[in-house]
Amino acid sequence: MGEVTENNSDMSILQRIATSDVPFLKDYGLNGVVGAVLLAIVIPFLLTSVFSRKTKKRAVQADVGGEPGLAMRNSRFSSLVQVPWEGATTMAALFEMASKKYSRRKCLGTRKLINREFVESADGKKFEKLHLGEYEWDTYAEAFNRACNFASGLIKMGHNLDSHAAIFSDTRAEWIIAAQGCFRQNLTAVTIYASLGEDALVHSLNETQVSTLICDSKQLKKLPAISSKLKSLRHVIYIEDEPVEAETLNQMKHWTTLSFTEVEELGKTSHIDARLPSSSDTAVIMYTSGSTGLPKGVMITHGNMVATTAAVMTIVPNLGMDDVYLAYLPLAHVFELAAETVMLASGTAIGYGTALTMTDTSNKIKKGTKGDVSVLKPTLMISVPAILDRIRDAVFKKVGEKGGVTKKLFDFAYNRNLAAIEGSWFGSWAPERMIWDNLIFKPIRAMLGGRVRFVLCGGAPLSSDTQRFMNICLGVPVGQGYGLTETCAGAAFSEWDDTSVGRVGPPLPCCYVKLVSWEEGGYTISDSPMPRGEVVVGGYSITKGYYNNEAKTNEVYKVDERGMRWFYTGDIGQFHPDGCIEIIDRKKDIVKLQHGEYVSLGKVESALSTSNYVDNIMVYADPFHNYCVALVVPAHQALEKWAQNSGINYKDFEELCQNDQAIKEVQQSLSKAGKAARLEKFEIPAKILLLPEPWTPESGLVTAALKLKREQIKTKFKDDLNKLYH
């Protein structure tokens, strides 16, 4: 069959989702809705004049030790929460107790593969298309038994109890089974992004002296090429998600190599008693995505994980056995691992999917068959902002294409619902919203299965426009979270009844959040109208530090005179009067220009990203000049549509990116976006370069959470950046 190329294998998660078609509005005539519209306008107008929004105190000042600053804790708890329930002090104990409590409930679900086929494009490339069936489920009791069997099989095959096991796989049920198996033998699991480059992979495995590697079949194929560099590896366990060629296995004869099923069967027939951990034992060494160089291994304890779990369980409304969760983000990211642990503790069903199979029109879904959300119909989802941004842009694009009455009706309904949300608390359940929801927004909700009731967003700042889009078009609250691998995802989380935008909520109940003045940067806790400073997080979610890197650990982790552990995030935040925190800057992103002006790169990028022409952007400021420049990955469709309307002739997209008129058009758009955001003249890039290739985790230019890897981008485009300054 020749070389098989995975469809859009070099695309990031957000791009895979964004390229899917968006089912959208029927063309509504006005006759059928005039009465509904009048009713929708009059009722909320009368009622919103009666009711007004009350400010709720969400955090209160806390008496803590350590460096002077302003510290806050969640107002709903008098002390920090540490465990979800008595006895659940470790990941192993939590899963065992949950499995007994919810034994017959659905736990882990995977779609049955009916068949796969390959289609050939015009340029000769072959793309895989999948026909997937219904979800097949393990109950909580069955999932727990599999984890026990895997734990026994792992030891029986020869894994040394004093060494580490690594999981190098895309998100799937076997990932959680393997992790829980490790926890039952008090083995530290090293988690590695499936998109990690070869050098970073070798670094991670060697630094932690991994003796057993658990991987999926796609990652298995990468091992022969680097086998000579892996010093401590002795055993390989591969998940049979795709056929594995005999030649690949033959190249790894120097290792003990078994399939995941074989290890489970080995443990089933040769039981080994559990060796249970304590809360202070390291559960996971989680490698960060390496946005500033080689990834660092963060040591996360069992106590850290269960504390974050306990805290988040108090935030998500009515979380429980009736919920269904779609899992598709990388489990090697603390955001997804924490979320799935919360689901396991709550008796929620976890259905696994992928970015390539999520919707009916996703790249890997065979035409005429159903995507993951259509089959699973989840009630809960988490996302990173870039994905939600693309869903929003895709919907608005469809609305614009339909035009006419449809667009006018959509715009009117959108603005009315926006006014209802921002006008009073009554707007969140007004009859007007029910009318618009059924008339206009129901088809949009079908994009995500039609039952989503809560979306948790994290990994990067969520724009106000996108948050409002989710509130209006999906009719759901968006819980925007803030945390880092070093805080085990736990720091702050906006509450479901908070309709404000741009903030990340109050501190989670498992930790304190403190602002410490940064005089050099001009951020102090005495600032008006709100105190500002570096965000420092302390409490039960603060991790042990970086593996084999004491110097870096001592730089950003501190223990105060009361024994409380604190992590210095490097982010700049401000406390609102109700105790919620807003992230406004980052110390490392601030550059001082030649004439003394400060440029916050992240702030500028966020503002310029609102341009329709921007798919991705990195602003660069050289301290020896008085202006900044930018590398821009243009949005293909938007720029090509402009070129078509402007009569621009070009051979391919790369040539279009080099066109002077195209560069001028994008630069004018950036200038307009910058002025709208009230940026200073020196903050708006004086020169730009358009880059035709997208930045993806696979390319190594963005992290798995889609954050810019500045150093890698600067290195790759060093010559181009120099040219922009000359």
TrEMBL record:
Domain of life per record: Eukaryota
Reactions that this protein is recorded to catalyse: a long-chain fatty acid + ATP + CoA = a long-chain fatty acyl-CoA + AMP + diphosphate; (E)-4-coumaroyl-AMP + CoA = (E)-4-coumaroyl-CoA + AMP + H(+); (E)-4-coumarate + ATP + CoA = (E)-4-coumaroyl-CoA + AMP + diphosphate; (E)-4-coumarate + ATP + H(+) = (E)-4-coumaroyl-AMP + diphosphate
InterPro entries: AMP-bd_C_sf, AMP-binding_CS, AMP-dep_synth/lig_dom, ANL_N_sf
Cofactors: Mg(2+)
Record-level GO cellular component terms: endoplasmic reticulum; membrane
Domain AMP-dependent synthetase/ligase: 123-547
Gene Ontology MF terms in the entry: 4-coumarate-CoA ligase activity; long-chain fatty acid-CoA ligase activity; trans-cinnamate-CoA ligase activity
Keywords: Membrane, Transmembrane, Transmembrane helix
One of the GO BP terms on file: phenylpropanoid metabolic process
One Pfam family of this chain: AMP-binding
Transmembrane domains' residue ranges: 28-51
EC number: 6.2.1.12
UniProt protein name: 4-coumarate--CoA ligase
Taxon lineage: Eukaryota, Viridiplantae, Streptophyta, Embryophyta, Tracheophyta
